[in-house]
Amino acid sequence: MDHDIRYNQTMIRYQDGELIETTDDYVKEFPLTVIVNGHEFATIICSPNNLEELVLGFLASEGVIFKREDLLQLELDDQRGYAHVKVTTDIEQANYLSTKRMVASCCGKSREFYFQNDAAIAKTSMSTIQLSPSQILHMMAQLQAHSKTFIATGGLHNAAISDGNAFYVHRQDIGRHNALDKLYGYCIKRHISVRDKILIFSGRISSEILIKAAKIGVGMIISKSAPTTLAVQLAQDLNITAIGFVREGHFNIYSHPERVDGAPKQLHASQQCRK
């Protein structure tokens, strides 16, 4: 059962030279401990909605499962904050339990953990999707329109997965990685192919977010914010089209522009787009 991710409470606001007692909405922060085959695997700090999708997507991102059939059982005790999971993988033999993990809502795990473990899971995209500039702008406008809780609280990351026309699903979470894992879990649960899909994202495209996109298997990620240099390098290496600063009728293409109608087939170092 999903919980309301918004909470309303009395607070004091300083405005126009006065201190005024009023109320405000803010987002809930929820610890979910994932128990895999009887072992404590990780604690995810998240928003308490779409938790089954979150667990599915997280386990797939970690390489614990590769398809829906690898999951034998998933029971949520969302009152106490536990997800009890049985999988076909022998996690003890695979050395998944060497370190207990706290997956924070702000930045996920450390970069060291990502680069030690993610190379085998991140996929080089084989996507042949082709989009027009107007489709890219429209998708970001749709994401903004769906982000009602963010508008009320200012405390969430928003993400969606699309085929370039309609959204398959929109998800939100206090953790940017969690929002993407919820999308991944949604697709795994419903056996939806992600090869020719696009991630639409509200936050910065960091290297960790780009790796998450590669793990999911999409060929394009678009964001209203900026990419980092390492994210662009990884996007180039993994054949992913990374598009940032999608706002107010413009955007920047940082890698593999050939998937956008009218763009050159490749970028040269001296021609890479800047803000």
TrEMBL record:
Any single biological process term in GO: Mo-molybdopterin cofactor biosynthetic process
Gene name linked to the record: fdhD
Family: Belongs to the FdhD family.
InterPro entries: Cytidine_deaminase-like (IPR016193), FdhD (IPR003786)
Cellular component GO terms held in the UniProt record: cytoplasm
Keyword NADP listed: no
Function: Required for formate dehydrogenase (FDH) activity. Acts as a sulfur carrier protein that transfers sulfur from IscS to the molybdenum cofactor prior to its insertion into FDH.
Active-site positions on this chain: 107
Top-level division of the source organism's lineage: Bacteria
Places the protein is found: Cytoplasm
Protein name: Sulfur carrier protein FdhD
GO molecular function ontology, one term from the record: sulfur carrier activity
Keywords in alphabetical order: Cytoplasm, Molybdenum cofactor biosynthesis, Oxidoreductase
